[in-house]
Every structure is written in C-alpha cells, then in structure tokens.
Amino acid sequence: MLTAVFWVLAVVAVAAGIAVFTVDSMARATVALAVSFVAVGTALLLIDAGYLGVITILMMLMEMGIMAVFMIMYMMNPGGLMPMSMLHNKRGALAISIGAFVLLAAGALLTPWPQRRGEPPSDVTRALGEAVMGSKMLVMMSVSAVLFATMVSALVLATGRGRYDGDEAPAAEDAGGGA
Amino acid sequence: MTASPAWAVVPAAALVVVFAGAAAALDGVLDPAGRGRPMSGRLGRPLWETARLLRQRRRTTVAPDALLWRAGTAGPLVVALLMAVVVPVGGITVADPPVGLVWFNALDVALWLTVWAAGWGANSVYGLVSGYRFLSQALAYELPLMFALTAPAVAAGSLKIGQIVAAQDKTWFVVRMPAAFLVFLVAVAGFSLWGPLAYPAGRDLAGGVLAEPSGVDRLVLLAGRYALLTVGAGMSTALFLGGGAGPLLPGWLWSLLKTALVLAGLVAVRRAMPVLRADRVMRLAWLVVLPVTLLQLLVVSVLALGGS
Amino acid sequence: MNLQMFLLLAAALFAVGLFGALSQQAVVMVMMGLELMINALVVAGAAFWYFLTPQAPDGQVFVLVVLAAMTVEMAMGFAVTTLLFRAKDADMTDMAAELRG
Amino acid sequence: MVLTQLLGRWAARRPHVLAVAAPGATAVRLAVEVEMARIGAVAATAPSDADVLLAVGSPGDELRDAIDLVWSQLPGPRVRADIDDPAEAGAVLRQVVRQLSDPQRAAEPDRRDEWAERAPDTHGEDMQMPGGLMMADRGPDRDALALDVLTVPLGPVLPDWPSGLVMDLQVQGDVVQQARSRILSAATPPRPFWDAAGPGASRRHAAAHLDSLQRLLAVAGWPGMAWRVRRLRDSTLTDTPGPVLRGHLAAIGRRLNRSPTLRWATDGLGVLTAETADRLQVSGPAARAALEGGDVTARWRRWLTETDALLAGEPAGPGPRGRSVPGRPASAGLLAAADELAIGLDLAAARLVMASLDPDPDQLAAAPEPAEARS
Fold first, then answer.
1. In CATH, what number does C3-97 get?
2. Which end of chain B is less packed: N or C, by CB atoms within 10 Å?
C-alpha cells in the first residue's frame, strides 16, 4: 500500500518536474515546481521524516510565492499567451541529462548498500531538534551566518541606490505594495 | 488525545461547514444594512447567497488560465479542510501527527500560491493586482505568525497539538503569551482575507480576487474564507485557550464553545474598522509586531527553561 | 519501499533539473532547474538517513542544511537577476554572458 | 422542478444589483439606493457579482456601450432595466426581482461568454496577439527596473465611483505612473443636483458632503460606517429636524475621529497644498482643508465640520464643491487635482484620493468639454 503511494508521488514529482520546462506559461511552471516539491515532501512523510517533509513543503511553497512576483516582473510573456520555446541547445542538454540519469540510477541499483543499522528513534523530530541544538550546533550556527550574509548581500545587490544616500529614497516601506 | 479512523474526516468537514455557515449568518445579522429587516431574513443570508450562486452560471474571461484559476478558487476551502484534520475538538482529532503545528503552518503558506493563482488565473487587472496584494500582505503577517506558533510549541516542548493542549492543564497559554494569541488571530484574519486584512478582496478593486469568479467558483471561494476563519478559531482554542478544558461540560462542547466565541469575535471585527493597505500593514508588522512577538517568545522560552 | 526506490526518484529529479539548468535561457528558469536538482538531494539525503543510519541524526541535519542552501540559492538568484535586469536589461543567460570582463 | 423554484425564490431574496448611473442622474440614483435598501438588495461589486443591471438616468453613447458590455458580462440568470424617474424606482426594482425569481430565467438558453471569446479589434498591422490582447509595454520606474506598463481604465462601472467617470491609468504593478480622467457624457446636459440655491440649499449641500463621505468610507473598506452615513444623507434630504441630524452626525464623527485605523489609512495621503489648490482653482472644502494639512484626513474632517455647520443653519456657500465660474465648474479643479495626486500611489491609495476630492460628475458633464480632451 505504502509502496503504491510512494510510486504515485514519485511519478507526480517527476512529471511535475518535467512540466516545469515544457509548459508555455511561467505561472504554470512555477506552480508545477511547487507541485513537485509538495509530492517530494509528502513522500518524505512516508519514511517517518515528518518534520523534514512538512518543512520542505512549507519552505518551497513560500519560495514559489516569491518566485511568482519575480517571474511577472522580469519575464516576457509570463502567462504563456504566446506559445514559444525558451529552450536552447535542447538536444545536448537532453543527452547529458539522460546520461546522468542512467549513471545515477545504475549506481543506486548496483551499489551494494550496507545493511540498516538500528531503528529510528520514537520521536524523530525531537532527535533532530536535540541534534541541532546540541551536537550539530556549530553547523547550524554557520548556516545562520550564511543566511544572514545572504540577506545582506542580496539586498545590497538588488537595491539600485543606497537606501540612505542621495535624494530621499521614496517610501522604502511600501516595497510590498508596489510589487 | 485519541486519533480517529479515516472516516472521521467526514464529520470534521461537516463541522467546519456548519461553523462556517453560522459565521456567515452572524455576519448577516451584524450587517447594519439588514437592520429593520426580519431576523429570519438576516439569519438566512448564507442560504439565499448559496441558492443564488448555485443557480448562477460560471463565467469565463478573455484568455484566462482556467486551470490555475479554478484550482486557485477552490484552494482556500481545500486548505481549510486539510487544516481541520489536525484541529482537536475536546479530546478528539482526526489525526495528531508529531508535527501537527508545522502542518498547519505549511498549509497556511499554501494559501500564498492558491490565492495568487485565483487572482492571476482570471487574466484581469483587478485579479492580478489582488493576487500580489495577498503576497505582500502575507509577507507581513507570515513571520509574526510563525513566531506566534513557536511560542506554544516551546512552552509545551512539542510540535504535537495534543501535547500543546495537554500542557495547558494548569494555565491556558493565553495568560502566558497574550501577544502571541493576538498575533495569531490577526494572522488568521490575514489568511482568510477578512476584516481589516481583506485588502486582497478589497471593494476598491471591485472585489479583488472576487472580481471575476461567479457561480460555483465564487461560492467555493467565499465558503473557503469562512472555513479558514473557522479553522483558525478552532486552532486558537487548542493552542491558547486550553482546548477542551473547562468545568462541568464535556471537553468537546467546551472546545466548540470557545471556537464559536473566537469566531464570533473575528466576524464582528469586520464591522469595526476599515481595510488596511498592505504597505501600512507591512510597516506595522516589521517594526512593531515582529519585535513584540520575538520578545514574547523570549519570555516564553525563559519561563520554559525555568519550569523544566 | 526501499532505498533503491528513493534513489531512483532522486536520480530522475536530478536528471530533469539538470536538463532544465542546461537548456533554459531565462535566469529564473535556470534557477528552477537548480531547485529541482537540490530537491533530488533532499530525497536522497532523507532516504540515506532512514534506510541506512536512522539512529544518527546526521542525515536529517544534512537535509536541513540543504534546504537552507536552497533558500540561499534562491535569494541570491533573485538578487543577481534584479541586478542584471537593471544593468543590462537582460534576463537571459546568453545576454548575461556579454557582461564578462 | 420544485427545487428550481425554491432556489429561484431564495436567490431573489437578496438580489445583487449593479446600478450604473449616468452623470446628472443623482436624484434617480439616490431613489434607487433607498429602494434597494428597502427590498434588501445588495450593491454588486462587479459584473460577475450582479444579477440585475440597472441603467440609471440617461447615459450618452459611450456610457451606453459600456453598459452593454457589462450586460454581456453578467453571469446570469440576469435581468436588465432602465430607470430615469426617481418616482418609478420602487416599482421597477420590485418587478425586476419578480422576474429574477422566475425559474425560466435560470434556463436562459445556454448563453456563452461572447464578450470573452470575441477578439477585440487589433490595431493596424501589429503582431496578432493571442485573444486580441496587447502585450504590456515597458517604461521607467522608481527602482530603475523599467518594468511593464499596463494601461488600465478605472470606471465607468466600479463600485463607489463617481458616475460616468473614467480614469485612464498607466500602472506598473499597482503603482500609478500616469492618470488622466474624463467624464462620459449624458444624453441630455444634466442640471447639477447638489448645487441647489435658495432656501433648501444648506440641507442640499450638507447632503452632498455626506454623499462624498459615504463614498470615501466605502472605498476605505468600511461598509458598515458608509451605510450609516448614507442613511444620514437620505434623512438630510427629508424634513428630519436639524438637531436630530446633528446628533447622528456627531456620533458618526466621534467614531471616525477615534478610529486609529481610518486615520492610519488616510493620514498623509494625497496632500493638496494651498498653492496647488490655487493653481488648479480648487475652492470649497478641499481648498479649506489644504490649510489644515491638506491630506485625505483633513478633507474628510472638513466635510464633517462643514456638514455640521450647514445643519446648524449656516447659510450655504456657492456650492458644495466650491465656486464654479462659467466654463470651469468647481469639480474640474478637483478632477485635475485627483489626476496629479494619483501619480506614484498604488491603486487603493489613488482611489482614496479620488474619493476624498470627489468631483461631481453632474457639473462636469454639464460643461462643454474642452477641445483638447477630445483628441
């Protein structure tokens, strides 16, 4: 039963992934990517990775929401009213990616994976939380530093003029309203 | 907390629909435009509206993205029902997964895309703008909401909603974290496009996301708004108001009573103030509400450390 | 369910993402390809954790870090796109190539 | 069959009415609003929301075309009627509701959305666009990103919007870059309803301010309060004694002044300076508000103060919108000010500014249009 559910989710995830690059409309591509992530997140729920699965869904849906803003800002034809292909060097890319798939799949199937050691703890999420706050604290601290640096540099890159220099920056706070 | 068999989703969904209908009826009663008209006419408003919309044709627009549009309009109702799965009524819940709180949060984020798609799909300026209005409003309320959700989780030491309810056996969390409770309610209004946060469904844009859909599409979208309010009220009961705790009456009844009370408050707030524009909400959220929520979280964490 | 099934899914997602990243012109679309490849990493990481070493939390922590990386990639991607768009009015990778030097 | 009848009866208990008023039809519009409240009808927010389309007054050709287009957008079951006489508003509305509950209406023969399927005229040899739609063009903006510019007309059919007003906007996202307003003409040159002179003038002007205020509150998304002001407006036009009206007005004024959210929505928005008011020949409450801050808040407070004074018996000034001179009615300056102040605002703010200036279409449709506006 669970296996069947997994295969359905897997097919949805991959099909939605393919749809991202085959549909005409950027809006649909964004939603397709979101669907792919939701399918993957749900698949993670099947293997007791509840927190990871749900957090994947949460973060990716949020990201796709933001993506929708940028896509309409910058893309020509985001609604796909004009059928057009945005691909270039399609054949080469296809060959490379099929090659990659064959290699990876062969590796996955042929490698003699070691036996499973132990059982998942009864409360997986708690174990994760304790690891993050305990033994893996250093990792998380560096991750948060990276996140902070990203926020700052992304802002610096994206803001054309300094917020605080020159003629009064018009209404910094209504950036959201003016999307 | 007892998890229920799979068929429990049916009564849960029915409960959501009944409460949503009651909320709509209350909205009709509170509407000053109905004053002087017989009470039966005001209470029956959800019925008249439903009949109207069932009779009405669905319409199309010029070059819509029909798939995204229909999916987007159905989205809020679907999200509300999926949220209802983890909302306990007394000691009973459809499911009580170990990450129930994150489940709720992930679903409210799912509204980002669905409401946006509902606006985008119609290919009309009003819809498009309202979709973006929702995103900008969501950016304002989402982070405070996340921290407001974190507070009860920290206090209870669990993301499991059953345990959060159980941790309130001595004092309700609303006493310990009033700011988080308030922020949560505002966020519920935000993702339900309700009251002062109905900006994406604003009258100034001919109804915003509601500008184009008609017939069943409109019915589902409107029902989704009320259902989201309902589920939000139910969740606030579980997270902050002690769930089914209370004297004399059985737990499920207490849960329903508290939910009804919160829901009535949410419905009433719509009459009390105008709609806020997203830029104002954004400023308030980031400059005032977010620091307050973080402070609240700090207090709760310190209390939790002291308690353990 | 077993490890091989999850790894197959991961391989398929990775291949699709690779195809997108290689074949797309728009910067935003290339980013979508990268996202899909990272998505594959999430699947693989979680599967390794569950099927090989469920006792140790490292696998889960790895997936969390990957998710964080995904966010970073997205944020920087959007920032760079905005920059390119303003500087050269380009949202295509071919056009961005001219920016070199 | 029984079910269809029941549905029809229920549906007609709360019909959604889209009343499109022509300039100069203020008296009929007010009568329609009163009758709608009486039968429990709701003002529709959009064509998609409407069961009934009412053409109020005598629209000119362009407005007539707009009403026809809106009619084709009503989802149906739908009914359409014209009202040109305040006295017949009640009878027409009741008849319309009877027709609406008729089960035959529901079975309108498989109507299709012709308006959505037909391709609008494409201009010249431009590239053929899908669905006949034009692609957005790009233009400079405040973040130097040169994003898409959309040309969007606001009106003439929009809830809580001056009758027959069309505001042609160029927007990027929802930020207005250019605005140009015009009034669609009426079939017959209208006599401005609010600009009464003589003994009843004070009451009439007070009601004019209240009409503006209710529109502003509705645009601000406070329908309950707008409803109260509308009721007060209607009783101001009857012979309700002044002190009673002033009591209601004071209660409303307290609520408005004490609402931090309303202040928050309108403070600092659309500042009309005294110089600009002078340049555009704005007189009346908007010009007087310019001395008190000049923002939207100052303007709605001005309405409250002046309404109270008028109800207290102060003699009426030259007109509720200010002094009109031949060829340039007072509202012309207000309309020009709305266009100027809208630039750089988002749509919601631009609508608030328009509502706070509230040019009177009756005056504008009466005036001969300047030649340049025709081109």
1. 1.10.287.3510
2. C
